[in-house]
UniProtKB/TrEMBL annotation:
Regions crossing the membrane: 39-62
Compartments, record wording: Cell inner membrane
Domain HemY N-terminal: 26-132
Organism this protein belongs to: Vibrio qingdaonensis
GO cellular component: plasma membrane
Gene3D superfamilies: Tetratricopeptide repeat domain (1.25.40.10)
TPR repeat spans: 327-360
PROSITE patterns: TPR
Protein's name in the database: Heme biosynthesis protein HemY
Length: 392
Protein backbone atom coordinates (compact mmCIF):
# COMPACT_ATOMS: atom_id res chain seq x y z
CA UNK A 1 0.00 0.00 0.00
CA UNK A 2 2.85 2.39 0.87
CA UNK A 3 4.56 1.64 -2.43
CA UNK A 4 1.34 2.35 -4.37
CA UNK A 5 0.92 5.65 -2.57
CA UNK A 6 4.53 6.48 -3.35
CA UNK A 7 3.98 5.79 -7.08
CA UNK A 8 0.85 7.97 -7.11
CA UNK A 9 2.77 10.74 -5.35
CA UNK A 10 5.55 10.58 -7.92
CA UNK A 11 3.00 10.49 -10.74
CA UNK A 12 1.16 13.47 -9.30
CA UNK A 13 4.39 15.40 -8.95
CA UNK A 14 5.20 14.57 -12.57
CA UNK A 15 1.84 15.74 -13.79
CA UNK A 16 2.15 18.95 -11.83
CA UNK A 17 5.66 19.57 -13.15
CA UNK A 18 4.45 18.72 -16.67
CA UNK A 19 1.74 21.35 -16.57
CA UNK A 20 4.08 23.94 -15.19
CA UNK A 21 6.74 23.36 -17.77
CA UNK A 22 4.54 22.51 -20.74
CA UNK A 23 6.44 23.03 -23.95
CA UNK A 24 9.70 23.15 -22.03
CA UNK A 25 10.61 19.47 -21.82
CA UNK A 26 14.29 20.09 -21.25
CA UNK A 27 17.14 17.86 -22.34
CA UNK A 28 18.92 14.92 -20.62
CA UNK A 29 22.20 13.42 -21.84
CA UNK A 30 23.62 10.26 -20.25
CA UNK A 31 27.12 9.25 -21.35
CA UNK A 32 28.62 5.87 -20.33
CA UNK A 33 31.97 4.99 -21.87
CA UNK A 34 31.39 5.35 -25.63
CA UNK A 35 27.62 5.17 -25.30
CA UNK A 36 25.34 8.21 -25.05
CA UNK A 37 21.65 8.31 -24.30
CA UNK A 38 19.55 11.39 -25.07
CA UNK A 39 16.00 11.99 -23.85
CA UNK A 40 13.72 14.64 -22.54
CA UNK A 41 13.10 15.13 -18.83
CA UNK A 42 9.53 13.95 -19.24
CA UNK A 43 10.69 10.71 -20.82
CA UNK A 44 13.19 10.18 -17.99
CA UNK A 45 10.50 10.64 -15.35
CA UNK A 46 8.20 8.19 -17.09
CA UNK A 47 11.06 5.70 -17.44
CA UNK A 48 11.96 5.95 -13.73
CA UNK A 49 8.34 5.44 -12.69
CA UNK A 50 7.97 2.46 -14.98
CA UNK A 51 11.20 0.96 -13.61
CA UNK A 52 10.01 1.40 -10.00
CA UNK A 53 6.65 -0.11 -10.84
CA UNK A 54 8.35 -3.09 -12.47
CA UNK A 55 10.61 -3.61 -9.43
CA UNK A 56 7.66 -3.42 -7.04
CA UNK A 57 5.76 -5.93 -9.17
CA UNK A 58 8.74 -8.27 -9.25
CA UNK A 59 9.13 -8.05 -5.49
CA UNK A 60 5.44 -8.88 -5.02
CA UNK A 61 5.66 -11.92 -7.29
CA UNK A 62 8.81 -13.26 -5.55
CA UNK A 63 7.28 -12.84 -2.10
CA UNK A 64 4.06 -14.45 -3.22
CA UNK A 65 5.95 -17.48 -4.50
CA UNK A 66 8.03 -17.67 -1.30
CA UNK A 67 5.04 -17.33 1.04
CA UNK A 68 3.15 -19.96 -0.93
CA UNK A 69 6.00 -22.47 -0.61
CA UNK A 70 6.45 -21.71 3.09
CA UNK A 71 2.71 -21.99 3.72
CA UNK A 72 2.64 -25.31 1.92
CA UNK A 73 5.58 -26.59 3.97
CA UNK A 74 4.04 -25.33 7.21
CA UNK A 75 0.73 -26.94 6.33
CA UNK A 76 2.29 -30.37 6.00
CA UNK A 77 4.49 -29.83 9.09
CA UNK A 78 1.55 -28.79 11.24
CA UNK A 79 -0.49 -31.67 9.88
CA UNK A 80 2.25 -34.13 10.88
CA UNK A 81 2.60 -32.53 14.30
CA UNK A 82 -1.13 -32.71 14.94
CA UNK A 83 -1.17 -36.34 13.92
CA UNK A 84 1.78 -37.03 16.20
CA UNK A 85 0.01 -35.36 19.11
CA UNK A 86 -3.11 -37.40 18.43
CA UNK A 87 -1.14 -40.65 18.37
CA UNK A 88 0.69 -39.66 21.55
CA UNK A 89 -2.56 -38.90 23.38
CA UNK A 90 -3.99 -42.23 22.27
CA UNK A 91 -0.77 -43.93 23.39
CA UNK A 92 -1.02 -42.42 26.86
CA UNK A 93 -4.58 -43.69 27.16
CA UNK A 94 -3.41 -47.16 26.12
CA UNK A 95 -0.66 -46.96 28.71
CA UNK A 96 -3.19 -46.15 31.43
CA UNK A 97 -5.31 -49.06 30.22
CA UNK A 98 -2.36 -51.44 30.43
CA UNK A 99 -2.14 -52.10 26.69
CA UNK A 100 1.64 -51.75 26.65
CA UNK A 101 2.25 -52.88 23.09
CA UNK A 102 -0.32 -50.54 21.56
CA UNK A 103 0.94 -47.67 23.71
CA UNK A 104 4.52 -48.16 22.54
CA UNK A 105 3.49 -48.36 18.90
CA UNK A 106 1.39 -45.21 18.97
CA UNK A 107 3.81 -42.92 20.81
CA UNK A 108 6.82 -43.91 18.72
CA UNK A 109 5.15 -43.94 15.30
CA UNK A 110 5.33 -40.16 14.76
CA UNK A 111 7.70 -39.19 17.57
CA UNK A 112 10.06 -37.40 15.16
CA UNK A 113 7.28 -34.99 14.20
CA UNK A 114 6.10 -34.27 17.75
CA UNK A 115 6.87 -30.84 19.19
CA UNK A 116 8.00 -32.61 22.40
CA UNK A 117 9.52 -36.00 21.50
CA UNK A 118 10.78 -36.29 25.10
CA UNK A 119 7.23 -37.12 26.17
CA UNK A 120 6.91 -39.79 23.49
CA UNK A 121 10.12 -41.56 24.51
CA UNK A 122 9.32 -41.47 28.23
CA UNK A 123 5.89 -42.97 27.62
CA UNK A 124 7.49 -45.56 25.33
CA UNK A 125 9.96 -46.51 28.09
CA UNK A 126 7.07 -47.11 30.49
CA UNK A 127 5.31 -49.22 27.88
CA UNK A 128 8.47 -51.26 27.23
CA UNK A 129 8.92 -51.87 30.95
CA UNK A 130 5.31 -52.95 31.18
CA UNK A 131 6.14 -55.62 28.61
CA UNK A 132 9.18 -56.69 30.64
CA UNK A 133 11.62 -55.55 27.94
CA UNK A 134 14.26 -53.66 29.91
CA UNK A 135 16.65 -53.42 26.94
CA UNK A 136 14.05 -51.55 24.91
CA UNK A 137 13.21 -49.43 27.95
CA UNK A 138 16.84 -48.35 28.21
CA UNK A 139 16.89 -47.61 24.47
CA UNK A 140 13.93 -45.23 24.77
CA UNK A 141 15.42 -43.59 27.85
CA UNK A 142 18.65 -43.01 25.91
CA UNK A 143 16.66 -41.32 23.14
CA UNK A 144 14.85 -39.22 25.72
CA UNK A 145 18.15 -38.16 27.30
CA UNK A 146 19.25 -36.68 23.96
CA UNK A 147 16.38 -34.19 24.02
CA UNK A 148 16.82 -30.65 25.30
CA UNK A 149 16.23 -30.00 29.03
CA UNK A 150 15.52 -33.67 29.66
CA UNK A 151 17.76 -34.56 32.60
CA UNK A 152 15.25 -34.15 35.43
CA UNK A 153 12.39 -35.93 33.65
CA UNK A 154 14.62 -38.79 32.45
CA UNK A 155 16.32 -39.33 35.82
CA UNK A 156 13.02 -39.22 37.68
CA UNK A 157 11.58 -41.78 35.28
CA UNK A 158 14.61 -44.03 35.79
CA UNK A 159 14.34 -43.72 39.57
CA UNK A 160 10.59 -44.38 39.60
CA UNK A 161 10.99 -47.46 37.45
CA UNK A 162 13.85 -48.77 39.60
CA UNK A 163 11.85 -48.30 42.80
CA UNK A 164 8.80 -49.92 41.21
CA UNK A 165 10.94 -52.91 40.19
CA UNK A 166 12.47 -52.96 43.70
CA UNK A 167 15.90 -52.25 42.23
CA UNK A 168 16.67 -49.87 45.07
CA UNK A 169 20.45 -50.12 44.67
CA UNK A 170 20.08 -48.68 41.16
CA UNK A 171 17.67 -45.97 42.27
CA UNK A 172 19.77 -44.70 45.20
CA UNK A 173 22.66 -43.00 43.31
CA UNK A 174 20.23 -41.42 40.84
CA UNK A 175 18.05 -40.03 43.63
CA UNK A 176 20.96 -38.75 45.71
CA UNK A 177 22.34 -36.95 42.65
CA UNK A 178 18.92 -35.43 41.97
CA UNK A 179 18.60 -34.31 45.58
CA UNK A 180 21.81 -32.30 45.27
CA UNK A 181 20.47 -30.46 42.23
CA UNK A 182 16.80 -30.35 43.22
CA UNK A 183 16.76 -30.42 47.05
CA UNK A 184 13.09 -29.42 47.34
CA UNK A 185 11.62 -31.71 44.69
CA UNK A 186 8.87 -33.62 46.49
CA UNK A 187 8.96 -36.57 44.09
CA UNK A 188 12.67 -37.04 44.78
CA UNK A 189 12.10 -36.82 48.54
CA UNK A 190 9.27 -39.36 48.42
CA UNK A 191 11.32 -41.83 46.37
CA UNK A 192 14.27 -41.39 48.72
CA UNK A 193 12.06 -42.22 51.70
CA UNK A 194 10.97 -45.47 50.06
CA UNK A 195 14.52 -46.33 48.97
CA UNK A 196 16.13 -45.63 52.33
CA UNK A 197 13.56 -47.82 54.09
CA UNK A 198 14.04 -50.65 51.63
CA UNK A 199 17.84 -50.52 51.90
CA UNK A 200 17.69 -49.95 55.68
CA UNK A 201 19.73 -46.76 55.40
CA UNK A 202 18.51 -45.60 58.79
CA UNK A 203 20.81 -42.65 59.39
CA UNK A 204 20.04 -41.27 55.93
CA UNK A 205 16.31 -41.67 56.60
CA UNK A 206 16.65 -39.85 59.92
CA UNK A 207 18.38 -36.95 58.15
CA UNK A 208 15.62 -36.91 55.52
CA UNK A 209 12.67 -36.84 57.94
CA UNK A 210 12.81 -33.08 58.74
CA UNK A 211 12.74 -32.29 55.01
CA UNK A 212 9.73 -34.56 54.52
CA UNK A 213 7.95 -32.90 57.41
CA UNK A 214 8.78 -29.39 56.17
CA UNK A 215 7.45 -30.29 52.72
CA UNK A 216 4.25 -31.57 54.44
CA UNK A 217 4.73 -35.01 52.92
CA UNK A 218 4.27 -36.76 56.27
CA UNK A 219 2.16 -35.87 59.29
CA UNK A 220 3.27 -35.88 62.91
CA UNK A 221 2.25 -39.48 63.57
CA UNK A 222 4.10 -40.82 60.53
CA UNK A 223 7.11 -38.69 61.42
CA UNK A 224 7.22 -40.25 64.90
CA UNK A 225 6.73 -43.77 63.56
CA UNK A 226 9.50 -43.38 60.97
CA UNK A 227 11.81 -41.79 63.51
CA UNK A 228 11.29 -44.67 65.95
CA UNK A 229 11.83 -47.25 63.22
CA UNK A 230 14.99 -45.51 62.03
CA UNK A 231 16.40 -45.15 65.52
CA UNK A 232 15.61 -48.80 66.24
CA UNK A 233 17.28 -49.90 63.00
CA UNK A 234 20.29 -47.74 63.79
CA UNK A 235 20.56 -49.41 67.20
CA UNK A 236 20.60 -52.81 65.49
CA UNK A 237 23.34 -51.70 63.09
CA UNK A 238 25.52 -50.25 65.84
CA UNK A 239 25.04 -53.31 68.04
CA UNK A 240 26.11 -55.64 65.24
CA UNK A 241 29.13 -53.49 64.38
CA UNK A 242 30.32 -52.21 67.77
CA UNK A 243 28.83 -54.61 70.31
CA UNK A 244 27.30 -53.72 73.67
CA UNK A 245 29.81 -51.01 74.55
CA UNK A 246 29.30 -49.12 71.33
CA UNK A 247 25.54 -49.59 71.65
CA UNK A 248 25.46 -48.15 75.19
CA UNK A 249 27.70 -45.27 74.14
CA UNK A 250 25.37 -44.43 71.26
CA UNK A 251 22.31 -44.67 73.50
CA UNK A 252 23.77 -42.27 76.04
CA UNK A 253 24.34 -39.68 73.28
CA UNK A 254 20.73 -39.71 72.13
CA UNK A 255 18.44 -36.84 73.19
CA UNK A 256 16.56 -37.42 76.44
CA UNK A 257 13.22 -37.20 74.65
CA UNK A 258 14.27 -39.99 72.28
CA UNK A 259 15.38 -42.23 75.16
CA UNK A 260 11.99 -41.86 76.80
CA UNK A 261 10.26 -43.77 74.00
CA UNK A 262 9.11 -47.14 75.29
CA UNK A 263 9.51 -48.63 71.83
CA UNK A 264 13.14 -47.50 71.59
CA UNK A 265 13.86 -48.67 75.13
CA UNK A 266 12.52 -52.03 73.99
CA UNK A 267 14.76 -52.02 70.90
CA UNK A 268 17.75 -51.06 73.01
CA UNK A 269 17.19 -53.73 75.63
CA UNK A 270 16.54 -56.42 72.99
CA UNK A 271 19.97 -55.70 71.50
CA UNK A 272 21.53 -55.85 74.96
CA UNK A 273 19.82 -59.18 75.66
CA UNK A 274 21.01 -60.57 72.31
CA UNK A 275 24.59 -59.70 73.36
CA UNK A 276 24.33 -61.25 76.84
CA UNK A 277 24.16 -57.89 78.60
CA UNK A 278 21.05 -58.89 80.57
CA UNK A 279 21.96 -57.04 83.76
CA UNK A 280 22.39 -53.76 81.90
CA UNK A 281 19.12 -54.44 80.07
CA UNK A 282 17.27 -54.93 83.37
CA UNK A 283 18.65 -51.67 84.72
CA UNK A 284 17.39 -49.81 81.64
CA UNK A 285 13.93 -51.41 81.86
CA UNK A 286 13.65 -50.73 85.61
CA UNK A 287 14.58 -47.06 85.18
CA UNK A 288 12.11 -46.65 82.32
CA UNK A 289 9.27 -48.30 84.30
CA UNK A 290 9.92 -46.05 87.28
CA UNK A 291 9.09 -43.05 85.11
CA UNK A 292 6.11 -44.53 83.30
CA UNK A 293 4.35 -47.87 82.94
CA UNK A 294 4.90 -49.49 79.52
CA UNK A 295 3.25 -52.82 78.73
CA UNK A 296 5.80 -53.54 76.01
CA UNK A 297 8.66 -53.52 78.51
CA UNK A 298 6.99 -56.00 80.88
CA UNK A 299 7.10 -58.67 78.18
CA UNK A 300 10.90 -58.32 77.98
CA UNK A 301 11.52 -59.07 81.65
CA UNK A 302 11.02 -62.88 81.38
CA UNK A 303 13.52 -62.94 78.50
CA UNK A 304 16.31 -61.71 80.78
CA UNK A 305 18.88 -64.23 81.94
CA UNK A 306 19.51 -62.74 85.38
CA UNK A 307 21.71 -64.32 88.07
CA UNK A 308 18.96 -63.45 90.57
CA UNK A 309 15.39 -62.93 89.44
CA UNK A 310 14.25 -61.54 92.80
CA UNK A 311 14.61 -57.82 91.82
CA UNK A 312 12.50 -58.44 88.71
CA UNK A 313 9.82 -60.22 90.73
CA UNK A 314 9.71 -57.40 93.28
CA UNK A 315 9.45 -54.85 90.45
CA UNK A 316 6.47 -56.69 88.94
CA UNK A 317 4.74 -57.19 92.30
CA UNK A 318 5.05 -53.48 93.07
CA UNK A 319 3.69 -52.66 89.62
CA UNK A 320 0.63 -54.86 90.14
CA UNK A 321 -0.08 -53.24 93.50
CA UNK A 322 -0.32 -49.90 91.71
CA UNK A 323 -1.95 -51.23 88.53
CA UNK A 324 -3.65 -54.62 89.01
CA UNK A 325 -5.09 -54.49 85.48
CA UNK A 326 -1.77 -54.76 83.67
CA UNK A 327 -2.12 -58.01 81.74
CA UNK A 328 1.50 -58.04 80.58
CA UNK A 329 2.79 -57.54 84.12
CA UNK A 330 0.62 -60.47 85.32
CA UNK A 331 1.96 -62.60 82.46
CA UNK A 332 5.61 -61.69 83.14
CA UNK A 333 5.29 -62.38 86.87
CA UNK A 334 3.56 -65.71 86.17
CA UNK A 335 6.50 -66.77 83.99
CA UNK A 336 8.98 -66.00 86.79
CA UNK A 337 6.84 -68.04 89.21
CA UNK A 338 6.73 -70.83 86.64
CA UNK A 339 10.54 -70.98 86.60
CA UNK A 340 10.56 -71.11 90.38
CA UNK A 341 7.99 -73.91 90.22
CA UNK A 342 5.45 -71.89 92.16
CA UNK A 343 2.61 -73.43 90.17
CA UNK A 344 -0.31 -71.98 92.07
CA UNK A 345 1.02 -68.42 91.95
CA UNK A 346 1.85 -68.83 88.27
CA UNK A 347 -1.66 -70.16 87.55
CA UNK A 348 -3.29 -67.28 89.42
CA UNK A 349 -1.45 -64.56 87.51
CA UNK A 350 -1.91 -66.31 84.16
CA UNK A 351 -5.65 -66.53 84.72
CA UNK A 352 -5.76 -62.86 85.65
CA UNK A 353 -3.77 -61.96 82.54
CA UNK A 354 -6.10 -64.01 80.32
CA UNK A 355 -9.16 -62.45 81.90
CA UNK A 356 -7.89 -59.10 80.71
CA UNK A 357 -6.97 -60.19 77.17
CA UNK A 358 -6.52 -63.48 75.22
CA UNK A 359 -2.98 -64.59 74.43
CA UNK A 360 -1.79 -67.87 72.92
CA UNK A 361 1.48 -67.89 74.84
CA UNK A 362 -0.27 -67.39 78.18
CA UNK A 363 -2.71 -70.19 77.35
CA UNK A 364 0.26 -72.47 76.67
CA UNK A 365 1.92 -71.53 80.00
CA UNK A 366 -1.38 -72.04 81.84
CA UNK A 367 -1.82 -75.50 80.30
CA UNK A 368 1.70 -76.46 81.39
CA UNK A 369 1.07 -75.06 84.87
CA UNK A 370 -2.11 -77.10 85.21
CA UNK A 371 -0.29 -80.22 83.99
CA UNK A 372 2.33 -79.70 86.68
CA UNK A 373 -0.48 -79.71 89.24
CA UNK A 374 -1.99 -82.88 87.71
CA UNK A 375 -5.05 -80.99 86.48
CA UNK A 376 -5.10 -82.84 83.18
CA UNK A 377 -8.71 -82.16 82.25
CA UNK A 378 -8.40 -78.43 82.89
CA UNK A 379 -5.13 -78.36 80.96
CA UNK A 380 -6.86 -79.99 77.98
CA UNK A 381 -9.63 -77.40 77.98
CA UNK A 382 -7.06 -74.59 78.09
CA UNK A 383 -5.16 -76.16 75.19
CA UNK A 384 -8.36 -76.31 73.14
CA UNK A 385 -8.98 -72.63 73.82
CA UNK A 386 -5.46 -71.88 72.63
CA UNK A 387 -6.05 -73.84 69.39
CA UNK A 388 -9.32 -72.01 68.83
CA UNK A 389 -7.50 -68.71 69.21
CA UNK A 390 -4.81 -69.78 66.71
CA UNK A 391 -7.40 -70.84 64.11
CA UNK A 392 -9.12 -67.43 64.12
Amino acid sequence: MIRILFLFAVLGAGLFAGTQFSGQQGYVLISIANQTIEMSVTTLVIFVMATLAALFLLEYIVKKIFYTSVSTFNYFSVRKMRRSRRYTNEGIIKLLEGDWKAAEKKVTRWANHHDMPLLCYLVASEAALGQGDKAKRDYYLALAAKQQDSQLAVDLTKAKQAVREEEHELALPILESLQQNYPHNTIVLGLLKTTYRALEEWQALLDLLPKLKKAKMIDESEFSALEERSQCGLLEDIASQQGSEGLISHWDKLPRKTRQSAHLVGCFTKQLIARKSDTEAFTVIKEALKKQSHDELYTLLPELNLPDSYPAVVLLEDTLKKNPNSANAHSALAQFYFREEKWADSQRHLEQALSLRPDVSDYAYLADTLEKQNMTKAAGEVSRKALTLIER
